[in-house]
Each structure stands twice: as structure tokens, then as C-alpha cells.
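Contributing new records

If you add data, match the layout below exactly. Sequence lines come first and carry their own label; structure lines follow with theirs. Keep one chain per record. Anything else will be rejected by the validation script.
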Amino acid sequence: MEYVRLGSTGMKVSRICLGMMSYGDPTRWGEWVLDEAGAEPIARHAAEAGVTFFDTADGYSGGRSEEITGRLLRAIFPSRDDYVLATKVFLPTGEGVNDRGLSRKHITSAIDGSLRRLGVDHVDLYQIHRWDPETPIEETMLALHDAVRAGKALYIGASSMNAWQFAKAQHVAEVNGWTRFVTMQNHYNLLYREDEREMIPLCADQGVGLIPWSPLARGLLARAGSDEASVRAESDSQRIEALYSDVENNRLILDRVAQVAREREVTAAQVALSWVLRQPGVSAPIVGATKAGHVDDAVAAADLALTDKELAFLAEPYRPRVVIH
């Protein structure tokens, strides 16, 4: 496993981040979600393969994902210093009107709730899950800065939003001497590349590390060349159709992924992940895994060096999509 600096920080992470959204409460989030017993061997397998970077959120399975993540990492790793732990704030954590969003009130409460569920005294990366149009960005950035000053988070990051919003947040932090975002967790894969217009160039200019979510397009890219459906695809079909609605263009890209996979004698998942890993500014894509083989594919992708010709071949059919955050 290769380890790289997270953006321009001094902290190093594995090239693959294990997304923990797949672990939680299947009765609340769908039958594709694994409970703790099902998650344990996969998380352990990832750690044995060299994965040290793990991402979750307080809104996943109503907080259950954080609880499972915390227990598993404490059981797997000898020391808290041996892994990098990331979580997120924004999604509802209760029924109250202030149990969501990015207000100072919610962030102050949410970080404490996350630390309690995770069973740690700090997270390495605390991220805003989305942009909050109802809260002044100055309020959000100061609350995040205070969480860092209090030692509850070492770094802060952001997730899917418009480039102008991210630039505004960074500017507010800079002019006030507050903590700036060091990562962008954006939606990025061979079937959705709209951030190449503005967000990715902005992050490259500012030294912000990219940790893309859904690098396999909810599994569509992993199934390129196969008619086999997954439990996730069947239960999450409406969301998948909304994110990747250009079926005709999808097919062209998937056919090329399958072709490269056949020629290389590797899986489609390895090809699609390798493409993401070799894009400028990408520190570590966030990969969900509900089988040990998913981890193996991700680790193998980090070592799969596609040629410039193959990278261009995979990218060439893409046509612009509707922007979705």
C-alpha cells in the first residue's frame, strides 16, 4: 500500500479510504448495509492490506455507523495513532429543528456526539457534509475553527458544493485567521466528472486534497461488462438513476471499462478505480466494501498503472451531465 500526504498537510493516508457508510443498521438504511458482525472481517481485511484511512458520518444509520466504526478501529489497531479517522456533520441527527445543518449550535453539539459514538477524544478530519444555505458561512467556519482549537478535530474538510461556495468559505477563513479546509470530498468517477470544470482546478491551485466519494458510481462501474445486479443496486435504484441518468453515454463508458479490464485481465472495478487514482489532486478515493473482494479490488487498483493511452480511451466518450451535489 502506498501512503501519500492528505492534500498539502503533513498527515499521510493510505491511497484507499474505506467508506464506512456500508456498516450500520440494515433496518434503517436498507438490506445492503452490514451490521457490526458483518463489517468486522471486511474492516480487518482492509487494515491487513494496509488501509489506514476510514470515513464515516454522524447521519449514517442514525449514528450507528460511527458507533461501529469506533469499536472496530479500536479493536483492530493497537494505537489511535495508527489510523486516520474522518467523519462528517450536516445531516439530521434527531427530530429537533436544530439537529441538522451547519449552525454553531449544531456543530458544537454534533462534534461531541460524534466523539462519544466513535469512542475517541478527537477526529483527524471533520468535514461538512454539504453546504448549508440557511447558515452564514462565517458562523460555520468559526464553529469549525473552535472545534480545531479545542483539540476535537485536527483538520477540517468539505464535501460536494459549488466551487464559488468553497472559494467563499476558504476566503472567510483566511481573512479571519481561522482554520481552512484541507480536503474536498467530491462526487467524481468516470460517469460523473462535472467537478473538472471548476472545483478540481480550484483545489489544485489551493493545495486541497481530493477524496472522491462513489468512485465506482454506486457500483455501476464495478459491474461493467456484467449483467449481475447487486443488492445495493436493487435497493438504491432510484438514487442511482438520478445520479447517472444518461444511460446511453453510461453504456459507452462502461463498454470501454469492460474492454480495458479484459485486455488487462483484471476486474472492471480495478480499472475504474485506477483511473480515479491517477487523476490530478486525488489523495484517496473513498471505497465502500461489503465483501472482502471489494477491498482486494481497491488495493489492486492502487498498483494498477494504466497507460496514458488507456486513461484517455476511458475518458474520451464522456459528455457533460446535469450538476448534482
